[in-house]
Hints:
The termini are close together. The strands form 3 sheets. The chain has a 6-stranded mixed beta sheet, sandwiched between helices. Strands 1-2-3-5-4 form a 5-stranded mixed beta barrel. A hairpin with a 4-residue loop joins strand 4 (81-90) and strand 5. The protein is α+β, with helices and mostly antiparallel strands. It has helices spanning 3-14, 21-33, 111-132, 139-161, 175-185, 190-194, 203-210, 222-229, 233-241, 248-258, 264-277, 282-293, 303-327, 330-353, 426-434, 436-445, 464-469; strands at residues 41-50, 53-58, 62-68, 81-90, 95-103, 166-167, 218-219, 358-366, 369-377, 391-399, 405-413, 416-423, 450-457. Helices cover 46% and strands 20% of the residues.
Amino acid sequence: MNINLYNFIYNGIINNKNISNENISNVLKALFISDINIGDVFRGKILKISDNLLNIEVNSKFIFQAKNISNENNDYKIGKTLEFTVVGKNEDKNEILIKINDNLDDKSIDDDTCKFFTDKMTDKIVIEKLLKNEIPVTKENIELIKFTQKYYGKLAEILKQYGISIDEGDLKIEIKELLKKVVNNLNFSEKDIADENKENYDEHSLLEKFKGHNKSHFLNSNDLLKLMNNISQDKLVFMLKNSLKFNLMNIKLIDEIIVGKKDISNKLLEFIEILKENGIKSEEYSNLVKLIKSVKPNIFYDKSKINEIMNKIYFEIEKLEYALNEKENNTLKTIIARKIEDIKTSFKFLNKLNENLTFIQIPINVNENIHSLEIYISKEAKKNKKINKKSTKIFISLDTKNLNIVQSLIEINNKEINLNFKLNNNKIESFFKNYENELINSLYNLDFKKVNIKYTIVKEKDSLIDIISSDKMVSKYNKLDLRV
């Protein structure tokens, strides 16, 4: 590893300096260049020439500077694609020395070269995500994110290939262990799973072995397959930061609760509809309906009231579970039990999240219509640190009847407040602007001296993950592990 890179990071920590985004980029670039070995052959396009210094782009993603020491008069021009050999490294300047092998303008970059630099880009992206989320940048955490993403993808690939899914009880098993379990059930070996290019792969014999397996108890879920195939590093970093297990249940809950495909409010209202449709008398669940309707906008003046109402809703769900379990037939009992378990699991998931952040998701009654409201309040990274009322960010997302999803990122900095509204279309923006002066005057009455309002038209709702991952890069390397 490059010694100067260590010194740069170390001095930044000891002197408590703010490190700019540009310097972060330079540090990360140096980190990857330090991994290149003498003798490595790669191919890339020349983007810039300054004497014998070349800016080279590889795989349309990774750009770095190298010094050409070729003796012969090579015809290298901007835009040319060439093959290079690494012949030396200048540790003091984080610079590599190269020799030009061949003009490859009419040839494609080989797969090995693409993989070599794609892996380095993947590391860079993961490191940046860890830094943004103030997670220790260690070799273990980088590999954890990369390999966990592959575990989800590999499991989805196997389940799809052999037409199976997993048992519902296995949703909470760590993804790595679940992959092993599925492999063992199919009589694979771990080597078979790892070696995707194995030529003597006897698919027929594996299928024959599997024919006798009892599929009846499996939970068929195409949605879970989609989730596994599309699991993003942002979601995995979010899970790591919030101490969530890497299993299928948590990615399902993230997709529903955090991304918003079926949040707490949706689940509660859907549950009430199921009770109605199946002839359950309204008095059986009237307390639940009253509790949900009791949530009015003024409740948010007191956080303790929010906790109180959510605890009451959870308690009422448990009472309903017990009462309906005593009366109903087996089929309806099973349907209700599944819905109740899903709601209870979602509540527990939110409680788990709130150990590390402040995130509220609650049904709210506006003009006798029930909507879904989300509030995220940014706070200091340290656990249990109180919210700084003079300098904080608040994200609010409200599902309205006539204005679709209305989102607002509120940034407070002492007496200045920035309101960034995200709206569905220009017509809604015009509606908001009609009441803009009233809003500004109200904020002045709250002792704000400067109010800035901005509007953005968006088609999709931002999720908590989007808000957190789009935050500015952290400025201190207080958690960068020098063992990387």
